[in-house]
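Quiz preparation item.
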């Protein structure tokens, strides 16, 4: 009978001991099996010290109830009297539900935790082999394996061994298990065992002596024939043995499974033979292997089977591993591997991924392995398969800064400890941090966090992940700065040769020049050099992400030389998180944006705020340009000021474009490519219009003061009128004037002609600014006709002489500068021409088709690939625009939505009006946007306009990066372009030519 008040006292005590369900715990303590010890305060205190007291008590009750009476007394007596056993047993039961289940099924196995000798504290491979020696079938092997695992877990949760020792013990246990499985497989097929030699090579974490509790064990099998045996039969026998070994470990039995044995790291992966001879392995690695395969071989270790054959394999492949950095494709392979691959992680899991997520274990492991490949070819001290040992060797050799190595070491150990405890709970393969509060509490307590385990765990985890994220890139680059800077006494620096090797591995084509730039930027004791040493490790990583890291670093040096003495420049890069990354992206994306920045370095200030990268309105641009013109002393100075505004705004547009397409760490790339193309087209068109307005004002002021004798308007046509100018486009225009009241027509015409000539002269004056060419060749009579006409003259010409193609050219006419009212009347004049009532007649349609066909055959440059020419090629800009314009001329009289100068707007209106099906409209739109992006990319990369892809490899790669293609995938980019434009051409053939 329970004494009144007793239950509440017990309840409170259990709660204070860390039980989350005191009522349930009280019922468990009342179990008959624990009657002899339930009142012992030592037991309750010991349970309260575990990761999960409730789980530990439940496991203890199940274990006690599974004992025979005489065995139960031994268990309970030992539990109360022997602290080492108590800590071990209850520690395991409170941390692992799966091992609690094992003990309930095999209640005698608790005695594996009783011994407390030196060999038991730090067992090695021999001890684990003895522990598995009595296993003669897969079921016995699983039981023995779990018994050994029980002892490893006990030492782990009690803190007897640290995380690195635990990982090594797990690898030793895996080695012993593979040997036992091969022994069982050989006993089952003695003929096969006698017919072959088989070596098992551990890879991955097992090979590196850093295994998890639950992980695939990666292996490679090497076979050979004993003397006098046929090699083919020997390999077949070895294959059967290897397959049986894998099944013994992997298959599920009444005792569950051990772990999957994964042989997919073998040559050709799962498509290759399971077992190869040593000669076959070497032939593959020498001819076909990729860089990642040599990276995987860093951890290769012979663990089972024929020791001599295993040693021969390691000796043979080791030189190949350390020569991998000299292979032709090493740099692009490394660049591809360096880019994080998180696309396959579900979005909801990225933030919980310990292994592959940002700041995860893979970041540390990859960084260490890459540096081993780069520097291990000349430094044998780096030849270790264990991550932490290799990191220590890298720090000792000066390849990684000691402080950085220490921080990575601590972060890696913490993350691995978290991974171990997460997997230990249910012995399941997972790298996800749990979301359940109770699971997080158990995890935190198992890591020694007892006050606020969940909050403390999350804080520590985020802190260590942040360290890894921050150092992941810097670890490659900080030692490069140390190689050219003053070091503290006792510090080790990279040799020039090692620094050059690292720069080459990270994509720098001229490491000598790169080191020279680093020395110029970061050497010395000035505050400027100190800030540069903080910035450069990250900047170098961003440059290496581009197609031309050398250009990025050189441009950064130039900008820094120009602005280094201004107080705000380095402060902006240091304090504004986005500014430094934005600058790195802009400086390494090609020639145009850096050239613009070099002419006005102060424009760097635009990169600090995303809002500053948005294009300004036409009204704001024109207002600033006209104000600058009005302040100037003469026409030349006025246009120079206008061109200066244009230069700065072009930089704003190019920078926003580059950053929008590339994205940054904090802001992903813009997914709507059409919106970005439209934004660039509108921005460049508005900027061109404002510059022409400024030139017009300057020309008028210089000779006539405030008022020209004739009203004057500039009409944009072609891409200019359509608000679709690319970076390298000329400005196609028409000029129209109207004499003011009382002014002689001839005088007005002379004044208008003089203004046009002066505008063109001023805009073509030699300058470092990008040229702005005004092209008036689409005017009536072309180059043979007058540059400027009155409205009646235009009306007379169009009424009498105009051809269908001229009406088509007027589809994209819009007023861009000058007298807006006059421009509006010009637009009213041409509307009946471009939107003819009842549409085009059949003869006019045939004329447009004939002209388009002739243009395709005559105007494509000689030698140009018609499948890759963005303007005149198959499915390119011309194809799409003529198809849309034909629909406008046929139907705009009845469909007001088609009365627009913009191609994409007209295409959308045609679709809305039912003139083109959805799929065909999408195909044309995709092709037009892509061709426009390619033209913009070529101008950004080369600094000069072009209508086809560059032939030079680095320029082509830079275009690919702008278009979203990774390093080494330029071929995919060209094929995608051909595929998209081929589909567009099929639509053009149907809609335009009526095929």
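Solution:
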């Amino acid at each position: 009978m329970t004494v009144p008040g007793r239950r509440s006292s017990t309840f409170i005590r259990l709660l204070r001991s860390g039980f989350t369900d005191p009522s349930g715990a009280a019922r468990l303590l009342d179990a008959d099996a624990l009657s002899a010890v339930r009142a012992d305060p030592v037991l309750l205190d010991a349970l309260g010290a575990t990761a999960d007291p409730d789980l530990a008590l439940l496991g203890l009750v199940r274990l006690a109830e599974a004992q025979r009476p005489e065995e139960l007394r031994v268990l309970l007596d030992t539990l109360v009297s022997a602290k080492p056993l108590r800590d071990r047993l209850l520690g395991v039961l409170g941390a692992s539900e799966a091992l609690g289940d094992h003990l309930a099924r095999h209640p005698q196995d608790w005695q594996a935790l009783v011994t407390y000798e030196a060999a038991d504290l730090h067992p090695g491979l021999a001890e684990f082999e003895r522990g598995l020696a009595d296993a003669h079938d897969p079921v016995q092997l699983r039981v023995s394996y779990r018994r050994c695992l029980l002892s490893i877990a006990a030492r782990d949760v009690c803190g007897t061994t640290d995380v690195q020792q635990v990982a090594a013990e797990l690898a030793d246990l895996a080695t012993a298990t593979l040997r036992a499985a091969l022994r069982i497989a050989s006993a089952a097929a003695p003929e096969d065992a006698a017919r072959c030699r088989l070596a098992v090579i551990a890879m991955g974490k097992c090979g590196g002596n850093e295994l998890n509790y639950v992980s695939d064990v990666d292996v490679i099998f090497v076979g050979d024939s004993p003397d006098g045996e046929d090699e083919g039969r020997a390999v077949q026998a070895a294959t059967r043995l290897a397959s049986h070994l894998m099944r013994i470990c992997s298959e599920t039995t009444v005792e569950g499974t051990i772990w999957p044995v994964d042989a997919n790291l073998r040559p050709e992966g799962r498509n290759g033979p399971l077992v190869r001879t040593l000669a076959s392995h070497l032939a593959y690695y020498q001819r076909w292997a990729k860089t990642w395969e040599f990276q995987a071989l860093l951890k290769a270790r012979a663990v089972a089977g024929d020791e001599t054959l295993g040693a021969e394999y390691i000796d043979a492949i080791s030189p190949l591993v350390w020569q991998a950095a000299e292979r032709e494709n090493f740099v692009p392979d490394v660049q591809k591997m360096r880019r994080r691959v998180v696309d396959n992680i579900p979005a909801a899991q990225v933030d919980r991924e310990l292994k592959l997520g940002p700041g995860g274990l893979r970041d540390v492991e990859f960084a260490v392995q890459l540096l081993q490949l780069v520097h291990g070819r000349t430094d044998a001290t780096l030849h270790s398969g264990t991550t932490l040992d290799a990191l220590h060797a890298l720090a000792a050799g000066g390849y990684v800064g000691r402080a950085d190595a220490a921080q990575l070491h601590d972060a890696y150990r913490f993350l691995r400890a978290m991974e171990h405890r997460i997997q230990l709970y249910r012995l399941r393969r997972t790298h996800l941090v749990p979301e359940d509060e109770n699971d997080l509490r158990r995890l935190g307590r198992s890591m020694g966090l007892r006050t606020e385990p969940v909050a403390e765990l999350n804080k520590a985890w985020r802190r260590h992940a942040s360290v890894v994220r921050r150092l992941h890139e810097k670890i490659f680059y900080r030692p490069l700065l140390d190689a050219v800077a003053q070091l503290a006494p006792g510090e080790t620096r990279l040799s020039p040769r090692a620094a050059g090797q690292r720069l080459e591995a990270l994509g720098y084509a001229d490491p000598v020049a790169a080191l020279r730039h680093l020395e110029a930027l970061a050497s010395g004791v000035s505050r400027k050099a100190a800030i540069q040493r903080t910035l450069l490790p990250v900047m170098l990583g961003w440059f290496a992400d581009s197609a031309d890291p050398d250009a990025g670093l050189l441009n950064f040096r130039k900008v820094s030389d120009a602005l280094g003495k201004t107080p705000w420049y380095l402060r902006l890069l240091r304090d504004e998180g986005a500014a430094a990354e934005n600058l790195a992206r802009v400086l390494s994306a090609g020639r145009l944006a850096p050239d613009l920045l070099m002419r006005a370095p102060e424009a760097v200030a635009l990169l600090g705020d995303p809002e500053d990268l948005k294009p300004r309105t036409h009204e704001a641009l024109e207002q600033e340009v006209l104000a600058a013109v009005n302040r100037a002393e003469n026409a030349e100075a006025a246009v120079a000021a206008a061109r200066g505004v244009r230069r700065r705004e072009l930089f704003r547009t190019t920078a926003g474009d580059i950053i929008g397409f590339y994205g940054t760490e904090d802001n992903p790339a813009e997914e709507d490519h059409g919106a970005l193309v439209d934004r660039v087209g509108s921005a460049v068109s508005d900027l061109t219009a404002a510059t022409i307005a400024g030139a017009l004002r300057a020309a008028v002021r210089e000779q006539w003061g405030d008022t020209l004798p004739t009203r004057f308007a500039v009409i944009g046509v072609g891409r200019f009128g359509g608000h679709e100018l690319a970076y390298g486009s000329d400005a196609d225009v028409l000029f129209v004037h109207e004499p003011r009241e009382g002014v002689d027509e001839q005088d007005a015409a002379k004044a208008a002609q003089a203004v046009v000539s002066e505008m063109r002269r001023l805009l073509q004056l030699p300058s470092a600014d990008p040229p702005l060419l005004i092209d008036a060749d689409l005017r009536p009579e072309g180059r043979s006709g007058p540059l400027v006409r009155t409205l009646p003259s235009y009306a007379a010409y169009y009424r009498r002489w105009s051809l269908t193609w001229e009406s088509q050219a007027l589809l994209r006419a819009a007023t861009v500068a000058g007298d807006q009212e006059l421009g509006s009347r010009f637009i009213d004049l041409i509307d009946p021409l471009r939107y003819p009532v009842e549409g085009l007649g059949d003869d006019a349609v045939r004329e447009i088709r004939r002209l388009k066909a002739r243009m395709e055959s005559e105007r494509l440059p000689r030698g140009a690939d018609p499948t890759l020419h963005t303007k005149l090629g198959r499915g390119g800009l011309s194809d799409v625009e003529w198809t849309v314009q034909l629909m406008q001329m046929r139907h705009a009289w009845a469909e007001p939505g088609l009365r627009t100068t913009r191609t994409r707007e007209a295409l959308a209106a045609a679709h809305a009006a039912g003139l083109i099906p959805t799929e065909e409209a999408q195909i044309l739109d995709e092709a037009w946007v892509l061709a426009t992006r390619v033209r913009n990319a070529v101008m950004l990369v080369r600094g000069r306009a072009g209508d086809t892809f560059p032939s030079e490899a680095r320029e082509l790669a830079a275009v690919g990066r702008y278009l979203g293609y990774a390093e080494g995938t330029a071929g995919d980019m060209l094929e995608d372009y051909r595929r998209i434009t081929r589909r567009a051409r099929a639509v053009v053939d149907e809609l335009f030519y009526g095929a």
